[in-house]
Write the structure tokens for this entry.
Amino acid sequence: MATTLENANPTIFQQKKERDLRPEEENEDLVDKIDEREFSLTTVVNLIRSINDPEHPLTLEQLNVIEQSLVEVDDTKSYVKVQFTPTIPHCSMATLIGLAIRVQLLRSLPDRFKVDISITPGTHASEDAVNKQLADKERVAAALETPTC
């Protein structure tokens, strides 16, 4: 944890409740495609919502760093895109947050999914540099080797 906080008084948002997904009928032969809303709410957002912010004892959801509306999922193309919004425009932890999101998804989703993580456009002073680092395969591989990330 940093000794001096960049954002000493972050705005804390209410966490959303998980969806109740009781099937109306139980049919084992039915192949049910995962739609964007179901998949993003039940899988992707639930996987990353409880990641702790590196600077505060709060989750990314509580700080509104991640939002369901910024998650795109295409099950047919095996593609997941997550945009995240740092709490302040000059957040020095943005790369670490993005790597934590990417690593959590790569470790949790089936291997067939391509994961694209980026900063919400216009929300960070070094948006292009951070996005370039988040797309760097060597940096992601190093993060995957770290068991606590």
In short: DSSP finds four helices and three strands in the chain. The beta strands are 71-74, 79-84, 114-119. The chain has a mean pLDDT of 82.
